[in-house]
Amino acid sequence: MKDAATPARDQYLSIAGLFAQIRAWPVTFLVTLLLTMAAVITYSYLKTPVYRGVVKAMPRENDSAGGGGLQSVLGQFGGLAALAGLSFGSVSEQESLALLKSRALFTQFASEQNLLPLLFPDRWDAKAGRWRGDPALAPTMDDAWGMFDGGIRRVSADPKTQLITLDVTWRDRRQAAEWANELVRLANEQLRQRALRESASSIASYQEQVAHVDAVELRQSIYKLLEVQVNRSVVAKSRLDYALTVIDPAVVPDAKRYVSPRRFLMLVVSGPLGLFAGVCAVVFAAFAKGMLAAMRPARW
After folding, report:
1. Which domains occur in the chain, in start order?
2. What is the pLDDT of residues 115-135, one digit of tens each?
3. pTM for this model (two decimals)
């Protein structure tokens, strides 16, 4: 014996059944279709545009400052280098890339830019200068880091060309460009200051060692190492772009050059989405009508 519910299921699930339901509920179908399309299109025009600032940079080769020069000296005086505990001091592409992605860089950047009120404007009372609601529930640096690293800032590198790209996606087009440029500048400054500290420490160490060395050849080798570190310090002081050379700085995009919302795409999608919503509406209406009819008490 055939299941009595099978024709009802086929009526809803088959293509012919869907067309039959649409013909039975034309007003519901059309109203749902038009309302869905209108909602999608309205959302695409009311949504705040999001812009992108992009910086392209290349890792700078600091051979004369420490990498190549110091490496050649260490090759000649490996024993002295081991005794002094020296490092080459050059900045690699991986190190620059890691710093751009690091939370340490973001923390300094967020503090300097007072970033939290900008990331969470709905929870910040600008007039009172404090967070709304319970202070214990105020956004933290953890919240800001998750938001920033999760979709605002993105860093990538081309393994063939070594080109590093940093982009910031934000609703304020001027801030998007400014933040992208500032992050690269801040990374350069941190690496430059670290090179200066390392050079100063190495120079002090060499000067202390040469005062206790009598052998002429050993003194000459220390002076060569000292010369390399002095050169490295001079380069670090003179180069603001110590580790990353900016090839293409971020510029403020035009007001119409937003990356989201993609209004044309949403306009195209609104049609199929409206059809789907309309079909769901008529199926639900037919199903609800059948359920109400089944629940109605029979008349004798």
Report:
1. 26-46+269-288 (no CATH), 51-248 (3.30.1890)
2. 999 999 999 998 988 999 888
3. 0.71
